[in-house]
Each structure stands twice: as structure tokens, then as C-alpha cells.
Design goal:
Blueprint (H helix, E strand, L loop, with lengths): L2 H28 L5 H23 L33 H7 L3 H22 L8 E3 L1 E3 L1 E23 L7 E4 L6 E2 L4 E5 L2 H54 L5 H19 L2 E3 L2 E3 L2 H22 L2 E3 L4 E6 L17 E16 L11 E5 L7 E9 L4 E4 L2 E12 L11 E18 L4 E3 L2 E8 L2 E12 L3 E6 L10 E3 L12 E3 L3
Parallel strand pairs: 1-22
Antiparallel strand pairs: 2-21, 3-11, 3-16, 4-6, 5-10, 6-9, 7-8, 10-11, 11-15, 12-13, 12-16, 13-15, 14-15, 16-20, 17-18, 18-19, 18-21, 19-20
Helix pairs in contact: 1-2, 1-4, 2-4, 5-6, 5-7
């Protein structure tokens, strides 16, 4: 049976059934409710009609291939002089069909028709003469944007972790999480007992160093004064002995003795440290004072640090300590307090080295997060790190940190959560845009394909703005694109120029 013939049979069956049902409904609406006998009679009539349709469907004589004419059924010849006698019996299969339910008969008829249509298509050569099946959409002009989506944590614009290296017990806590604090405000107070004692010891050491130097300065001043006098006397004695030796009044030995005395007096005098003509203690005593002063200042600073203070204006976001703990022994080496300036928020994002070239300071960003309940806030790239770092996880890829400043106030967005930022890289308006599935590469060229007179026309293109799913296309061979052209969406290198196609219905 040809596909056209089968389709006609299917339509006839569906139409007959539809007319019968419509007539039945109309009759029911206009007549009083039927009794049980009347219902049974109608059902029997409908069943008989379906049986006749089934028989007609199953015993349609096949047509001559390619002609549409019915083949003549070959009959066995009867012996001479005998006429064929009709048996009046239906085949066994038909007998069984008559016993089926109405629903089963209809389903069977539909299946038979589907099989016959398929066989008809196979017999006619399938899609060989119909062309390559393709799906198309009308080519159109649209707006397109290229965006870069990035994720990162939200932080304050200024933050500090407050720690202490003092081995001192926490005596007082003055703040809790969520408190607003100012620079210099006291957060906690430590036990000062040991610290005050340390300051006193350091003070005593300093005072002792100063007093020692004073004593040594006195000794040096007196010693130097005497050494100068001794040197002057030795010098005078030697000068006198020189004159006497010249006159032959003293021996060479006496002269040498006075010379030696002069040299000893000079060495003694030069052994003193002299400042402004006055002998002072040597530099070691000054160094002792400096060391003692440094230690005293350190202990005073530690005593001052017994009051833990904030170094910035901000909000206390974490408190990891409590009264009774030692300031330098916070659990898991966490800071005592974490403080952030939440008046302005930032996103700290690491961008792949392959995408960083698209990011510029001043670019706008649209920021979203689950906490915003579908709302968005604007942001701006304010900083790009001059150096990259390892991505980690065994990857050889490098990433570059960037900072996006959140613009405008939005109380829903908070520090410590992860947010998504979309950077607008470039955009185009009123341009021809195609889905990515419509693009295919061959060699170094990129193509789209359209249907023209039921044949393929390939068009080489260059890509403009690209999104995740679409791309702007610009012909490179001078082809003028027009809106409404049938763009093939399942294109590929197998679609050669001039190939016949069959447009599949949507």
C-alpha cells in the first residue's frame, strides 16, 4: 500500500469515527436518556462499524509498485466445469478481532497504519529524494552582550584582625559581635598585675644604668683632670732634663727616664673619653642606658596593650575570646576580634589569566547573591593586582586578584557571603545574531548556512560580540544578510553548497 493510500485510510477511519461520535452526542443531547437496551444496541452498531473498517484496512490489495493501481488477486483455478463457491467465512484472525474490545480495536488500527506508512516510505527510497533534513529559524537582528561571570567573597573595604601576644588573662570584655566601634575604643582589658611588675623592674634597671653612668662620669672627669696635670708635669721635667743633658749635667739614662715618664703620662691622658674638654664614662655605660630605656619602653607598651583597642572604625564581626582565657592562647589561633568597615563592601575575585585581558579598572558590574532575593546591586572594578598567583588544586593556570567595589547602600548584602559579579565586556545593537549551534568550522574559516531554493548556501563569517549561547556574525565574502533568511540551526561541514535539504517542521 502506498503512503498516500494509507494516509487516506487513516483519515477516513478517524473522520468516520469522529462523525459517528459527534452524531451520537448530538442525538443524546436532543433525545431523552436511553435505556440499557438502547445503549447496548448503539455499542454493537459502533463495534460492527469498527470491524468493517479494520477488515478494509487489513485486506486492502497492494498496488503495483509506482503505479497506484491495485494488483489483481490471483485465484486458484477450479476443476473444469466447477464454479467457485464463496465460503462465507472470514479468516480466523478476523474472527478473533471481532472478539476484541472497542479500545483495543482502535489502538490496533492506529498501529497498523503507522507500520504501513513506515513501510511505504522505505519502499519509496526513504529520504533519498527528499534531501538532508534540517531545522531552520528566521535570521534576525538583535542586541547582544558579552559578559564575564565571576564569583568571590564579600568583604568590608577595611578590615583588621585584633590579636595579642601577651600571656595575660582576659579580665573584661567590652564588646560583642555586631557592635559598632570607633578607632581607639577599648574592646577588652587584660590582667595588669604581671605587666605592672615587669614595668617596675625595667624602670629600676634603667635608673641603675643612669646612676652608674653618672658615677663613672665623675670618676672619668677627675681621672682625666689628674692625667692632664701629670702629663703637663712630665712634659716640663723632660724639657728641663733635655737642657741639662745638653750641658752635660745629667746622664743619658736620666734623660731617657724623663722621656719614658712623659710617654706614660700621655698614654694615661689619652685613655679617657673626653667631651667638651671633660672626661666622661666610656660608651659602654651609655649603651647600658639605651638598652634599659628600650626594655622599659617595651614593658610600658605591653602595659598599655593590656587594654585591647580597635585600630579602625567599623563593626565587630567576630569575637573568638572570652573572660578567663589568656590573650595569646585563643582557640585554633584565631584572632581575639575581627572588625570590618561595612559602610562600603567589596568583592575579592580571582580572574583566570585567560580572561584578565578583558578586565579593566572602571568597568561596571552587576552583582547578585542569594541573600538579595532576586535583586541586584551595581559595582565597579577598582583594583587589579599587578601580579598573578597559582590557582591551586594541581592546576598550572594562574589567576589575578581583582577588587570590585559595591556601589550604593543595600542592607541585604553582607560581608562573609559569596556573590556573583557580571562584568560587561562589550555589546552590539541591531546586528545579526545566530545561536552557537548554527556555527561550524572548516579549516580556518567559520560558516553559517541558509536554505535557498531548498538548497544549502554556505556563508563564511567572522564573529563579533559573543555570549554564552549566541554570536554576532559578519559575512566575509560580501554576502548581504537579510532578516527572514532561513538559517540552518543544525549546520555542519556535511552541508555542502547546493546540497538538497528537507526543512523539518518545528
Amino acid at each position: 500500500m502506498s503512503s498516500e493510500r494509507m494516509t487516506e485510510k487513516m483519515d477516513a477511519l478517524d473522520g468516520a469515527e469522529g462523525e459517528r461520535l459527534g452524531a451520537a452526542r448530538e442525538e443524546e443531547a436532543q433525545s431523552p436518556a436511553p435505556n440499557a437496551c438502547e445503549i447496548d444496541r448503539r455499542r454493537n452498531e459502533e463495534s460492527e462499524e469498527i470491524d468493517r473498517q479494520m477488515e478494509a484496512l487489513m485486506f486492502v490489495e497492494p498496488s503495483e509498485e509506482g503505479t497506484g493501481r491495485k494488483k489483481k488477486k490471483k485465484r486458484k483455478k477450479s476443476p473444469a466445469g466447477e464454479k467457485e463457491k464463496p465460503t462465507g467465512k472470514k479468516p480466523a484472525f478476523i474472527q478473533r478481532v471481532r472478539g476484541w474490545s472497542r479500545k483495543r480495536k482502535i489502538l490496533t488500527a492506529v498501529c497498523l497504519l503507522a507500520v504501513m506508512v513506515f513501510l511505504g516510505l522505505k519502499a519509496s527510497g526513504g529520504n533519498k529524494d527528499m534531501g538532508i533534513p534540517v531545522t531552520v529559524i528566521p535570521l534576525s537582528k538583535q542586541s547582544i552582550q558579552e559578559k564575564l561571570s565571576l564569583n568571590g567573597p564579600v568583604t568590608g573595604t577595611d578590615s583588621v584582625d585584633v590579636v595579642s601576644n601577651l600571656h595575660a588573662e582576659i579580665k573584661e570584655m567590652h564588646v560583642k559581635e555586631g557592635d559598632q566601634v570607633e578607632k581607639g575604643q577599648i574592646l577588652a582589658v587584660l590582667d595588669r598585675t604581671d605587666l605592672e611588675r615587669a614595668v617596675q623592674i625595667a624602670q629600676n634597671a634603667y635608673d641603675l644604668a643612669v646612676n652608674n653612668k653618672k658615677e663613672k662620669d665623675k670618676e672619668a672627669a677627675l681621672g682625666y683632670e689628674k692625667a692632664v696635670q701629670d702629663f703637663q708635669k712630665a712634659s716640663m721635667d723632660h724639657n728641663r732634663n733635655s737642657l741639662l743633658f745638653a750641658n752635660g749635667d745629667i746622664s743619658q739614662m736620666d734623660l731617657e727616664a724623663s722621656a719614658n715618664a712623659l710617654n706614660d703620662a700621655k698614654r694615661q691622658m689619652e685613655g679617657y673619653t673626653v667631651v667638651n674638654g671633660r672626661g666622661v664614662a666610656d660608651k659602654s655605660y651609655e649603651l647600658q642606658i639605651q638598652n634599659a630605656a628600650f626594655e622599659l619602653e617595651k614593658k610600658k607598651e605591653e602595659l598599655e596593650n593590656a587594654q585591647i583597642k580597635s585600630s579602625i572604625d567599623g563593626t565587630v564581626v567576630r569575637v573568638n575570646s572570652k573572660v578567663g582565657q589568656f590573650a595569646d592562647k585563643v582557640e585554633d589561633d584565631k584572632p581575639m576580634f575581627s572588625i570590618e568597615n561595612l559602610e562600603e563592601l567589596e568583592l575579592e575575585i580571582k580572574v583566570s589569566e585567560f580572561s584578565i585581558g578583558k578586565v579593566k579598572v572602571g568597568q561596571t558590574a552587576v552583582i547578585s547573591a542569594d541573600i538579595l532575593d532576586g535583586e541586584t546591586v551595581n559595582g565597579e572594578v577598582v583594583k587589579i593586582s599587578p601580579t598573578g598567583e597559582e590557582k591551586g588544586g594541581g592546576s598550572t593556570e594562574r589567576v589575578i586578584p581583582i577588587t570590585i567595589r559595591v556601589q550604593g547602600g543595600n542592607t541585604k548584602l553582607i560581608a562573609g557571603i559569596t556573590a556573583k559579579a557580571e562584568l560587561l565586556i562589550q555589546e552590539a545593537e541591531d546586528t545579526f545574531v545566530v545561536p552557537s549551534s548554527a556555527l561550524f568550522d572548516e579549516g580556518d574559516a567559520t560558516y553559517i548556512a541558509i536554505v535557498q531554493d531548498m538548497q544549502v548556501k554556505r556563508i563564511p563569517v567572522k564573529l563579533g560580540v559573543e555570549s554564552d549561547i549566541n554570536a554576532e556574525v559578519i559575512p566575509t565574502d560580501g554576502t548581504v544578510l537579510e532578516e527572514g533568511m532561513q538559517l540552518i540551526t543544525n549546520a555542519g561541514p556535511q552541508l555542502t553548497d547546493g546540497a538538497a535539504v528537507m526543512v523539518m517542521p518545528k
